[in-house]
UniProtKB/TrEMBL annotation:
Domain Phosphatidic acid phosphatase type 2/haloperoxidase: residue ranges: 83-208
Keywords per UniProt: Membrane, Transmembrane, Transmembrane helix
Transmembrane segments: 7-26, 58-78, 85-106, 138-156, 168-190
Organism per entry: Glycomyces paridis
SMART domains linked: acidPPc (SM00014)
SUPFAM superfamilies: Acid phosphatase/Vanadium-dependent haloperoxidase
Keyword hit for Membrane: yes
Entry annotated with the keyword Nucleus: no
Protein name, entry field: Phosphatase PAP2 family protein
InterPro entries with a match to the protein in the record: PAP2/HPO (IPR000326), PAP2/HPO_sf (IPR036938)
Pfam families in UniProt: PAP2
């Protein structure tokens, strides 16, 4: 992947995130739309579609994706005798994990609060941010963020061997599929998913900007520099 030349996309994502988040502090039209989407999904979920959504939602599993990304970074680091791919992984991992601060600061109950087996579920007044209800941590969607960040990281590591159209599919399809499945299953509100997308794009773009192949390392990580 080429290093981004402009910060315009990152700025646009941050502005979009703020504009998207603000209406979630009160029972706005966006919150009411979240309720309508959840109820429509609940009313039209069959056994087959439910199982299919569960399977496709795994495309955003952070643990599995992070493991794949770590494996790829480790192989590249071993072949090149260079720790930089692993540093790229660690940086990406901690940036993606930092979303937990936002999730547990803004505090939003999940669509099937308080219990998926005991409707009625959260109404518009309960589905806002900064709730005192528990458990809360729905906003933003970590699954969608994971799909953006980790597939982007994989393309960053090995994307040169992909055809251009394969890179495009790798970067776009998983986040879209996960956004649909996690909303359809009621794991997240509809509005949680764009927030994960906005943050994920900012993270992977920042990671892309670092010249990992040439970034200078401390001597203890690159002792052979002593003899150059």
């Amino acid at each position: 992947m080429r290093r981004p030349r402009s910060w315009a996309l990152e700025i646009a994502m941050v502005v979009a995130l703020v504009a998207w988040t603000v209406p979630l502090f009160w029972p706005s039209a966006l919150v009411h739309f979240d309720i309508a989407v959840r109820d429509a999904a609940d009313a039209h979920r069959t056994g087959f579609t439910h199982q299919f959504a569960v399977l496709t939602n795994m495309l955003g599993q952070g643990g599995a994706l992070g493991g794949v990304a770590l494996g790829i970074a480790s192989i590249i680091a071993w072949r090149r005798r260079d720790v930089r791919p692993l540093l790229a992984f660690v940086t990406t991992y901690f940036m993606a994990g930092a979303v937990l601060v936002m999730k547990y600061t803004l505090l939003r109950v999940y669509p099937h609060w308080p219990d998926i087996s005991q409707p009625p579920y959260a109404d518009a007044a309960q589905a806002v941010l900064m709730t005192s209800l528990e458990p809360a941590g729905a906003y933003p969607s970590g699954h969608v963020l994971n799909a953006v960040v980790w597939y982007g990281f994989i393309v960053l590591m090995v994307g040169r061997s992909f055809a251009p159209w394969v890179r495009v599919l790798f970067l776009t399809l998983p986040p879209l599929i996960v956004a649909y499945s996690t909303t359809y299953l009621g794991f997240h509100w509809f509005s949680d998913t764009p927030a994960g997308l906005f943050i994920g794009v900012v993270i992977i773009r920042i990671v892309q900007r670092v010249p990992w192949g040439t970034v200078e390392l401390p001597l203890w990580l690159e002792p052979e520099r002593r003899y150059r």
